[in-house]
Amino acid sequence: MASAVSLIGKTTTASTSSLPLQSGSASLSFTAPQAGDVAIAITDSKGNVVKSETIDASVGTNTWTWDGKNNAGTQLSNGAYMVAVEGSSTDGTSVSLPTTVTGTVTGVSKGSSGVNIDMGDAIIDISDLTGFSST
User: Fold this and answer.
1) pTM (whole model) above 0.85
2) Choice between 36 and 113, residue whose per-residue pLDDT is larger
């Protein structure tokens, strides 16, 4: 836990569907097995879809940034949201695509299964972290 405290203030990436909206923005990446339409849905803590968008993805790694606005164009509060990304596999069937989110570490806490990293209100298990930067 003590070593995790050194992460506070750093930007990190994590393989998770928990999307931290910080300073009115959130970003994620996903890997598409083929080019084409990919559906992105953001839900609030109650499971309500607040933002949905279809983007044209290329094969491989794609990034998407959310401006924190809902489908009506209203700016939402910073906090923890959930994201789901769905695309097509190479055989044409619909498939859920794993996401990697980016956020700034704001705290460290002890969870039931170990150490958690806080990105604002989003709580991420430290084992889901995939990278860090100092900015």
Assistant:
1) yes
2) 36
